[in-house]
Design goal:
Layout: H1 4-29, E1 96-99, E2 106-109, E3 121-124, H2 127-133, E4 138-139
Parallel strand pairs: 2-4
Antiparallel strand pairs: 1-2, 1-3
Length: about 140
């Protein structure tokens, strides 16, 4: 078939031409937009909600304090240290590692190279620090 490709191309572009023609017709049928006049300010339309008291309040005398001759002794206040969790350490300083994932069960020592398979690792300087964060973790078998 001679010229078959070009004929198919024209048939494919025909619907696009019809859509464009329909859109142009719709745009031409739209009514003209009218420009509304700029609103003007009418002071009679202002509603006063409240009035302000423009007179300042009368000055009051500052309270006078009488110096006391007897002072009560004050005891030094001691604050009990709050229980804080030990902070994780960087990988190069850590000795024990576990995963931050809730499904994790084991912890590893740095010398056990299986720690490289752990996802979302978190390192601690000591086993006690690790167990303070994750008390349910056990050493890897």
């Amino acid at each position: 078939m001679v010229g078959g490709y070009k004929q198919r191309q024209r048939m494919r572009s025909a619907p696009a031409c019809l859509i464009i023609a329909a859109m142009l017709t719709l745009v031409a049928c739209l009514p003209d937009t009218t420009i509304l006049p700029t609103p003007t300010f009418d002071p009679s339309q202002v509603l006063v909600l409240s009035t302000f008291n423009r007179t300042p309040p009368a000055p009051t005398a500052p309270p006078t304090s009488t110096p006391s001759t007897t002072q009560t002794p004050t005891l030094p206040v001691t604050v009990a240290p709050t229980s804080t969790l030990p902070l994780p350490v960087p990988e190069d300083e850590g000795q024990y590692v576990t995963s931050m994932l809730p499904r994790a069960r084991y912890y590893y020592k740095w010398t056990d190279k299986r720690w490289k398979t752990i996802e979302q690792r978190i390192w601690f300087a000591s086993k006690e620090d690790l167990l303070a964060w994750f008390p349910d973790r056990v050493p890897a078998p």
